Amino acid sequence: MVHANGDCPMDAAARPNVLLIMGSIRPGRNSLLIADWIATLGRSCSGLACEVLDLADWPLPMDDEPGLPHAGQYVQPHTRAWSEKIVGADAVVFVTPQYNWGYPAPLKNAIDHLYQEWRGKPAAIISYGGHGGTKCAEQLRQVGAGLKMRMVATAPALTLPEEVIRQHVALDPAKDLAVHVDSIKQAFAELAIELAAAA
Ligand SMILES: Cc1cc2nc3c(=O)[nH]c(=O)nc-3n(C[C@H](O)[C@H](O)[C@H](O)COP(=O)(O)O)c2cc1C
């Protein structure tokens, strides 16, 4: 149960932890603002512990593991660290922009460094773009299915104002994305159900 003030009575140490993995690493990105805003919303509506993960802090060179990821025999320290990070997450939320109808390469690279770590992991996709990024969300859902992730049905697709994309006007998520609050809450509610089922 979530209190009216947004606090969750659940013992903080007992809260499942959700990693919000940002798809964008480019300078000047909107993803930091968007992911932080979603994390705050997710904490208050679901009581889940939400941590924003910036892939810029997790440099994973392309294809630098000699073995296939499904064997889990990683030789690179950064892959081992990345594996531990994902194993330690109870669920993930991909918060990703759409780039040319797909999702960004750093996100695919981060996913492809691992394999078993994703299996059975409750997950949600929150995409954004001029039209919500639904095409990249579809692609990511397909990849998640291939990895046997437990994707929730609701995939909020956040529409960024034209002036934010074209004229670099500062995004104000609380105002510009307010229309999407209900669908984000719904995605977190579904994630909480998946987590309860997995416990
Ligand atoms: C390489 C690139 C490709 C893009 N392709 C699309 C697109 O296919 N559809 C769309 O709606 N917006 C597209 N955009 C606009 C992005 O939605 C917008 O720039 C958004 O802020 C990108 O997220 P970020 O700032 O977190 O990197 C693209 C932006 C970039 C940089």
Automatic annotation (TrEMBL):
Key word Hydrolase present: no
UniProt keyword Flavoprotein present: yes
Taxonomic superkingdom: Bacteria
NADPH-dependent FMN reductase-like domain: residues covered: 17-154
Keywords: Flavoprotein, FMN
SUPFAM superfamilies for this protein: Flavoproteins
Cofactor(s) named in the record: FMN
Protein name: NAD(P)H-dependent oxidoreductase
Source species: Dyella acidiphila
